[in-house]
Amino acid sequence: MEEALIKLSPSSATDFKSCPQLFKFRSVDRLEEPVSAVQARGSLVHVALQRLFALPPDERTPQGASWVLDEVWAELSADEEVRPSELTEAQEREWLDESRWLLNNLFQLEDPRAVSASRLEWWVEYELVETHLRGIIDRVEERADGDWILTDYKTGRVPGEARELTAFFGLRFYALVCWRAFGVMPREIRLVYLSDPAVLTLAPHERMLLAFEKQIVALSAAIRRALTTGDWRARPSPFCMTCAFQTMCPAWAAVPSSQAEGPPEGGP
After folding, report:
1. pLDDT > 90 fraction of the chain, expressed in percent and rounded
2. Strand 131-142 relative to strand 148-154, pairing
């Protein structure tokens, strides 16, 4: 019988790269996890930006962005997948103000009225030999000369110079999909950081994407081995402190609660 394709998105691929056990919890076991304020703010801002760029150009103003945010929150505030867990009324107001501040920072980076977005929140997919690549690109601009520019919004902090290429993992993933599925090599991929604010850009090329494709193929093979052997080796790190699955993780099972202030001995 033909083996099922390994399904990968940028987020699930990143999960496996950082901690195979986390990938198992999320993508294999599909365990529920509470929505953090940071995750929820990112989701809210992304939906608001999609609505903003769907407006006529002259309405894409700071006031329009604020109105869109209020509209989106009125629609989604009861959605458990969007609403942060356990926020008091005062905390919710502060959280919304932070989301509004992030949206306003976009206007320091570009004039949304001058942006001609061809696609917003665009679902793309492509099948390699044993791997199904899929995900959503925040924004695609198709220029008159046929060039594509892919943009990904980030609500976290700008990475240090040593981690810039790693930060482009998701957009290199999407650039590969665009190249393989549509025959278009994006001219530029852009990370728009709203918290600092700043824009990082990278120009993909064939050698880069071929190397990235090999990386994805190797990652898919490692996932298939883990599925076969059941070896989902945890990789303890400081990020364990905010992981929703820490209490059930094998790496932490024998760690007394009094010691659970950092990764187990031997961790990075």
Report:
1. 77
2. antiparallel
pLDDT given at position 266 = 43
pLDDT per position as a tens digit, 46-98: 999 999 999 999 999 999 999 999 999 999 888 877 788 777 888 889 999 99
Q: Where are any strands of DSSP class E within the chain?
A: 6-8, 119-127, 131-142, 148-154, 188-193, 198-202
Q: Which of 75, 94, 114 is the last residue of a domain?
A: 114
Burial class (CB in 10 A: 0-12, 13-18, 19+), 104: middle
CA atoms within 13 A on the CB side of 253: 5
In a domain, 123, yes or no: yes
Can you name the residues that pair with 139 across neighbouring β-strands? 120, 151
Residue 13, classified by CB atoms within 10 Å of its CB into exposed (0-12), middle (13-18) or buried (19+), is buried
User: Does some domain include residue 51?
Assistant: yes
What secondary structure letter does DSSP report for 124? E
Please answer whether residues 251 and 234 qualify as being in contact, where contact means their C-beta atoms are separated by less than 8 angstroms. yes
Residues 161, 109 share a domain: no
Which of the four pLDDT bands, split at 50, 70 and 90, describes residue 2? very low
Number of neighbouring beta carbons within 10 Å of residue 122: 16
Q: How many CA atoms lie within 13 A of 138 on its CB side?
A: 23
177 belongs to a structural domain? yes
Question: Which is it for strands 131-142 and 6-8: parallel, antiparallel or unpaired?
Answer: parallel
Return the pLDDT at 88.
83
pLDDT score of 267 more than 50: no
As a 3-state breakdown, the chain gives helix, strand, coil percent values, each rounded to 5, of: 50, 15, 35
